Amino acid sequence: MSxxxxxxxxxxxxxxxxxMKDLAASMGIDPASLTRxxxxxxxxxxxxxxxxxxxxxxxxxxxxxxxxxxxxRIRGKAYQFxxxxxxxxxxxxxxEVKRQEGNNYDRV
Length: 108
Hints:
By secondary structure, this protein is mostly helical. It has helices spanning 2-16, 20-27, 31-39, 44-54, 84-107; strands at residues 70-74, 77-81.
């Protein structure tokens, strides 16, 4: 499990343009302490500090990495997705909205 945590923290830092030393500084800890926490058995309070410093949920730090993640803009509104399933859900909801709008146009 710590490999998933470490990989996700590194991936999120990279996506945010942060180095591990920046993350450690924002958490108020030494970079070596952060490295030890990620490579060993991190305490829950340390993991919560990591999530807070990165602006992500605790859950997201433990989710296996998916091959799809990013942002999508639908009708001017931006949505973030972290998995293929989340992207599919966003797109399926958009298809449903289009169908409903199509039905509304048919009634006019």
